[in-house]
Amino acid sequence: MRSVLLVAAASLLAACGGGGSEQTVDFSGREKGHVFYTYPADEQAGVSVHAPLVVQFSEPPGLAESDVTLNGPQGAVNVAVSWADGGSSLVVTPSAPLAFNSEYTLALAGMTLEGVGGGALNFVTGSAKRGAVEAQQQAADFVVSRFSPAENRPLMDFSTLRLQFSQPLDATTVDYGSSVTLTDNADNVIPVSVLSGGNRLTIDPVEDLTPGNTYTLTLTSDLASVFGNSLTGGASYSLVPEDSAPSETLVLEAMAADPVKGCNEDGVTRSPLTGAPINCVPLVAKLLGDTTVSKLSGNVFADLAYIPNYPDAAPLRISKGSLLEGEPLDVLIGGYLPAGFDSGDVTVSFVSDANGYLLPTPYSQSPEAPRRVELTLDLAFSTADSRANGAFTQSLLQVDLVGRAIVEEGRMVIDAVGVVEPEVLGIETAYGVLSFHMESYADQENAPQPVADISGPVLQSWQPGDFADRFRPGDPIILNLNETPDQTTIEPGVTLMLTQQGSAVPFQWQVDGASVVLMPDQPLSFGTEYQVALTDGVQDLRGNPASPETVTFSMPSFSTNAPRSPNATTVYPGYPCAVDPASRDLAAGEQGQCVSNTQGQAGDVLPLPTLPANRAIAIQFSQDMDTSSMVLGTSCDDGSVRVEKIDAAGNCLEVVPATLSPQLRELTIIPQAPWEQGQLYRYVLGSHSATGCGQNVICSSAGMPLQTAQLLAPESDVGGPDLSVAFVGAEATDNVFLPLRNLPKTDVNANFLVDSEETATVEVPAGSGVYPVPANAARLGVTGYGGAVTGANVGCGFTLLLQPLSCPDQKDTYLNGGINVDIVGWDEAEQAVEVTLYPPVLYTTSKDVHAQLVGVPTSVPTGPLVMRARYRDDGTGRRTLPLQGWIRYDEVEDQLTFDTALDLLLDAQEMEPLGLPLPHNLYSYPLDDVQLKGPVDFLPDGRMVIGLESLTAKDIDVNIGSGLATIDLAIPVGGVNLTFQSGSIK
C-alpha cells in the first residue's frame, strides 16, 4: 500500500511539477526567472519580525540588489540580498527587526508575481511578547483572528483545530467544557487536548473525528485576554470533517545537515530555499549570541489522506508524540563565555497532531512548478541537562512552515522555512530560522518503523528544590521532567497532588515543554511544609507512565512580631525613594533628592531616567501586597497607581492609558502605546504618612501602607509621601532587562530586625569556630574608639572586667533589596559581557553596637541602615550614569564570574548614639569604590544566581556629638556577601 501511496503522491506532484531530476526543463520559451515559491506565503499573517524573505525562481533571474524593494509602515526597509541554490533562490534579510503588527510588501523590479494581489508579495508581521499593549495586540477588541483549517482547506477527520486571537490569551480563562467546548451532534463533549500560549489556542481531539458528523466548537465570552478583555460576542464554529480513508503512512527522513560536522561548519548540506544548513535549530539572542545551534535528525511518519480524493489540497498529518532528536547546544553567555555546561541532547516533540497540505503553487501554471507545502506544528523543546532544560524547555505553538515538494529519484523531497521564537530564561525572546528538509524513503515497504519507547517521564529538577529558603508566596512550583508529559493525563488531586499535612491544596496548572507548573489558588504560607506528588498516572506523549515521585519542602519561617510597612525594593525606571519636591528640576534633567529628615545631608540629586519605548514600568516589593489596593487612575492625581504625561513644571497633562499586572510581590504597568521619544512622564505609587490603608494608597496584605521614605526615620507602621518618578520616553532597546532579587535572606518578614524565627549567622562546619558571612549580609567590626568611649564591641557587650565578649555569630547585619540590570552584550575590548546596573537601595537590619561610656556599658542600636548605591559621574561632576558590571570567564577556575564597583551612601536615620538624641555623621556617609566580585551559577532548575563578595575593607568612622565620642567600625575583606537571583522562569 505504501508503494501505491508514493506513486499517487508522485503523480500529484507531477501534476503541478516537481519532477526534479526525472525531467528536463526547457526555459528557452519562457520569461527568465519564473517564480515557483515564496516565504512568507502571500498574505501570510503572524510572520516573525525576524523572518527572512525568500523567492525561488525556476532559474537564476538576473536580479540586482537594487531591483529588490521591501516597503513597510515607515517606507523602504534596508535589506541585505543573498542567493541560494545556484542563484535561483533570492534571500532578502532586513537589516533590523521589522515592526510588529505591520503590513509589508516585497516588490521585484520588472517582475509581476502571478497569483498575488498587486503583483508583489504581501504579508503581515506578528505581535510582540513584551512592551506596550499596542505592540502585543492586533486589535482593540478581543476576537478570533484566524481559524485553521481555513475555509479553502478541507477539514479532515484527523484535523487539529487551531485558533489565533487578536490579543494574548489569559490562560486561566481557558477552561475546557466551560469557556471552550467541542461537542458532537448529540451535544456530547469530545475529549481533547487543549494547548494555549500567547495568542494561540490548539484543540486536538484525542480520537479522530467521525467523517460526515457535525461538530460544534464553542468559545464563550468567559474567555479573556491578559489585558482583561472578554471575547467579543464569543464564537461558534460548525464543523463537518471529511474522510481521509483509505489513508496511509509515508515515512520521511529528516537527515542531519552532516553526519559529523556541526551546523556552523563548511561543507554541510544546505537548504535550496535559504542557503542555510538543513534541519538545524539556531537560537539568536543577546543572552546567547548568534552561534547557538542544534543539529536535528529523525524519521517523520506522515499520514496522508487518500490523495485521489483531494487533488487540489492533499491533507497530511504528523501524529502527536513524534520526535526529532538534536545534538547538544553549547551554552555560551553572550555567544562567547561558556556557562560551564551544554544542553545535553535536545528533543523536539510534537505535542499535538501536526497538520498540513500539499497544494498547487499559486505563483505559476508551469508544469515544472513544485507543489506547495503548508505545515503547522505544536512543538515542545526539552534537553538532557537539567539546568538547560529549566532555562529552555517550553512549548512553541502553531509554528507555520511554508515549503515546496518535488520528487527526485523516486523520493518525495520537502523543503520548508519557518521561524521559532523561544524564550531564554523567561526574560528574552530568541529567534531561529528553520530550514526544514525531509525526504521519503524510496522503499516504503521496508522503511524504518517507529522506535519503541518504553521509558516514561522522570523528574529532572524542580522549584524550589533544595532552595526553599529562596521561595516566596506567589512563586510557582515547577516540576521539570526529562521529557514532555501528555497533559491529558494530568488530573489535579489524582495524578498530580499538592498537599499540606495531608490536606489537598487547590491549584491551577499548565504544561510548558517538559515542565509542569503548579500555581496554588492561594499563596503558600510561610513556615509551612508542603508535598508535591507526581504519580505514574502521568504519561508521556507515547503513553509511558512517569516514575512516581514525591517531593517535600518547607516555606521559610516568618515572624508576625514587630510588623513593619513594606517598601519598594526596586523600581524601574528610577530610584526607590520619594523625592523632596523642592529639589526637583525636570527642565534640567533632575529628579531631585530623596526626601530626608536631614534634607541638607540627603545626598545626591538623582537624574531623570529614560524608559525605552518597548518596556514596561516594573516594581518589586519587600512583602506580600494587597493587589486589590493597586488601582490605576483614570484622571490626573487619581488612583493608587498613576501614569501621566507631564510638562517640565510637573503638571499633569493627561493620563496615560495602561494595564496593570499586579502580583503578590511585583507590579508591572504596561502602557497602551509605546512611550514617545523625548516626552516627559511620571508614574506614582500612592501612600500616606499615616497608619492603615486609605484611599489611593498601596498596601501590604497585612493592611500596612507602602513606606516610600525611610530617610524620614518613620514609625514602623506608617507610610510616606507618594513615590513619584518622572522619566523621559526613549527609543526601543534590544538590551535584555533582568530583575534580580536578594535571596536567600535572613530578614524574611522585612521588618529590619532579626526575629527569633529567623536564621542568622551559623558556624560552618559545626565546631570549627568559623562563621562565614551568610548570603545577603554585611559584617561589622570595631577597629578603634575615642573621646568619651573607652571600649566598643559589635553584637555583644563586655565581661565584668570590661573586656569584649566573644560573639562571632552576632557581627552581621542582614540585607533586604534587589537590583535591576540590563544585559548589554559582548564587549570586545573587555572580552566580557557588559551589564548595566541600575543603582539599588539595600535596607539592613538594626545592629547593636555596645560601648563603654567612661567605663559604663551601654548599647547603641543602629536602627535600620540604608545603603544607597550612587549613579556614576558623567564627567561633568554630575552623577547621571547607571553602574557598569562585567560577566567574565575565569579559565583557571572554569567559572563564569561577575564584577562591579559601587559607590554607596550609608544612612542611619534612626540611630540615637549612646541612647541620647545626639548628632552623628551617618547621614549620606560615603563608602566609595566598593569592589565586588563572585561566581555566576545556575540552579538545577535553570535560574541564574550571582554571588558577590567585597574585595577590600571599608572603614566607617562614627563621629558622635561633634567629636564627643567616636567609634571606628570596619567592613572587612569579604565582609559584604550579596546573592542576586533571577526570578521564576515560568
Commentary on this structure:
- This is SbsA Ig-like domain-containing protein.
- With about 1000 residues, the protein is mainly β.
- It folds into five domains: about 1-30 and about 270-370 and about 380-445, no CATH class; about 135-240, Immunoglobulin-like (Sandwich); about 460-555, Sandwich (Immunoglobulin-like), CATH 2.60.40; about 570-735, Sandwich (Immunoglobulin-like), CATH 2.60.40.3710; about 740-980, no CATH class.
- About 5% of the residues lie in helices and about 40% in strands.
Category from helices, strands and their pairing: mainly beta
Quaternary state of the chains: single chain
Q: Percentage of helical residues?
A: under 10%
Mean pLDDT: 93
Count of domain modules: 5
| Number of beta-strand segments | 70
Which sheet architecture does the biggest sheet show? 12 strands, antiparallel
| C-alpha termini separation | 46 Å
Tell me the strand percentage band. Answer: 35-45%
Using only CA atoms, what is the Rg?
32 Å
* Coarse shape: elongated
Number of helices: 3
> Uncertain segments of ≥5 residues (pLDDT<50)?
14-31
Question: Can you lay out the helices and strands and say which pair or pack?
Answer:
Blueprint: H1 2-15, E1 35-39, E2 44-47, E3 53-57, E4 68-72, E5 75-76, E6 79-84, E7 89-94, E8 103-108, E9 121-125, H2 133-136, E10 144-148, E11 161-165, E12 180-183, E13 192-197, E14 200-205, E15 215-219, E16 235-239, E17 248-254, E18 280-285, E19 289-304, E20 314-318, E21 323-326, E22 330-333, E23 337-342, E24 346-350, E25 354-359, E26 371-383, H3 386-392, E27 394-408, E28 411-420, E29 423-424, E30 428-429, E31 432-440, E32 459-463, E33 477-481, E34 496-500, E35 503-504, E36 507-512, E37 515-520, E38 529-534, E39 549-554, E40 568-572, E41 590-592, E42 606-607, E43 610-612, E44 617-621, E45 641-646, E46 652-655, E47 658-662, E48 666-671, E49 680-685, E50 723-730, E51 736-742, E52 777-779, E53 781-787, E54 789-794, E55 812-816, E56 818-827, E57 832-838, E58 841-844, E59 848-853, E60 856-861, E61 865-869, E62 872-873, E63 879-881, E64 883-890, E65 895-907, E66 925-938, E67 944-950, E68 954-960, E69 965-971, E70 976-982
Parallel strand pairs: 2-9, 43-50
Antiparallel strand pairs: 1-3, 3-7, 4-5, 4-8, 6-7, 8-9, 10-11, 11-14, 12-15, 13-14, 15-16, 17-19, 17-31, 18-19, 19-20, 19-21, 20-25, 21-24, 22-23, 24-26, 25-26, 26-27, 27-28, 28-31, 29-30, 32-33, 33-37, 34-35, 34-38, 36-37, 38-39, 40-44, 41-42, 44-48, 45-46, 45-49, 47-48, 49-50, 51-56, 51-70, ...
